[in-house]
Input
Amino acid sequence: MCGIVGYIGQKEKKEIILDALKELEYRGYDSAGIAVISDGKLNHFKAVGKIKNLEEKASGFESKGSGIAIGHTRWATHGKPTELNAHPHLGAFSYVVHNGIIENYQELRKELIDKGIKFVSQTDTESIVHLFEQNLATGVEPFEAFKATINRLEGAYAVLLITQVAPDTIFFAKNGSPMLLARDDNDVYFASSDTAVVGRAKEAYYLEDGEYGFAKTNSVKLYSKDTPKEFVTKPLPEDKTLAQKDGFRFFMEKEIYEQSSVMNDTMLGRVLEDTIEFEELDKSLFDGIRAIKICACGTSYHAGLTGAYLLERMAKIPCQVEIASEFRYKEPLLTPDTLFITISQSGETADTLEALKMAKRAGLKSLTICNVDNSSIVRESDYAILTRAGIEKGVASTKAFATQVMVLWMLTIYLAQKRDTLDKESIDTELNAMRHTPKALIVARLLHERIYRLSKRYLHGHGFFFIGRDIFYPLALEGALKLKEISYLHAEGYPAGEMKHGPIALADAELFTIALMPKNMLYDKIKSNVEELIARDATILAISPDTFGMADDYIKIRHADHPMLEFFEMMLVTQILALEISIRLGNDVDMPRNLAKSVTVE
Ligand code: G6P
Output
């Protein structure tokens, strides 16, 4: 997602900001920009696409001597990735960069337009700079005007603001989106992540939600709830690669831990108080639609299977899921009353893209659930819902899967409301459970430690079966895929009730069964299936909120009152289990043999 940087000091500001932005490229972006005040003069440059485009635009510009600068890489959420929508956003004499989503931006925008302000972008961010200048016009000091501005913002933000009225100061605020400030002698740096400042500064302070303040050369004032706050900086890592991994051993591990926070991004502006909203969808999209066909590959296919259970059960719409490479050559029957949904983290998977083109040729409306804006699949689709997971580096997909499932769950409720298939109480239950999801996705230290200790018992054997029922069946498929991908051990996902129709013949002490046993969905049924395996001496690792004494090993998840919360926590367990087994086997977790992140060949 978006990246923010800032600098106060004597050095060449353009170079510092551009270098820092390059370090944030891994977060994913589609446009970038910088603004500099030196010698009291304001300059700004913006460009769509890669940072080298921005470098070209700013090539003739130099900013030596003392001054301030801010920069931004934008990952489009409100409005297309155009130059006008790129940050920094300009008021009459001030600039702002922002990461996050301002939920009440429409209200702010309307208020400002009514006062005669002209907006040039479609972003939620532009309101911030105009609001600041309006507040300043009441005659208060710039910091008071900034505070009054921040007080009006609802949603998530990390904000840096500069103004010609205070040409030596950067105003900053953080709530829900990451930001740190770093110092080196008299120089001050800001960034969304420490990779941007490693090598430049030795120490940093990671801002907490609700903190704001202003910085000048050699002086930083920090506040929380109107009270000045002392802060203690922490040493920064010296190694850049380590910094990109935020101290985790592998990107995959970092991405597993990120799932809780990216889920907030996925839901922002979509899960509202008593409804689901998708700004990106046309109100008439579902008119005349009687069925859904989902097409995807790999992990995205598993997300699709999960979505199909939800869509049929709650939105009461027939839903079929197909593996794209199979779909392409089976001469499928396609009727225009079917909505064609593709799911893809990369947006470039050749089989999914070709399946989409086939569906379009047959006259179907298309929607994609994708993590990369402007990717081929997004461009080819009539509609796109972005999963907003941020760039995923580990080849084995984790946070992309979690956010795909969340979008499908939200889409189900969106459709259930349109089709009037759920009563208000049930909708409230679903929305509440969604709001609890980020919490269910927090990795507890004890849970990780337990999985780490257990993992040493699962490095051999003649195979793994992950078993589950209902939505826990696709989760079992995904758990098995994760293990296969990074441990190279043989693993299969199976519907628990189907084991007795064949696979149970394999059962012995060396057959490892990972049993997904949620309390909120068919617990007794799966318990019987597990007992059948125990009777044949299979080794069972049970994952459940309740102790299951007959299992060989047991991993406890939190008690929850909704199956989706159990789903997401069990997903964490299966991901961490695969990770720890793979590490113990000495494999390259992030780049497993033979696999690619984006498969653009058939
Ligand atoms: C590759 C990746 C998988 C992914 C699959 C589908 O095999 O390694 O992680 O699930 O492609 O990719 P997509 O980008 O379409 O989700």
Q: What stands out?
A: The pocket of 6-O-phosphono-alpha-D-glucopyranose is lined by residues 297-300, 344-346, 349, 352, 395, 397, 595, 597, 599 (CB under 6 Å). The CA atoms of residues 262 and 389 lie 5 Å apart. Residues 563-584 form the longest helix (22 residues). DSSP finds 17 helices and 25 strands in the chain.
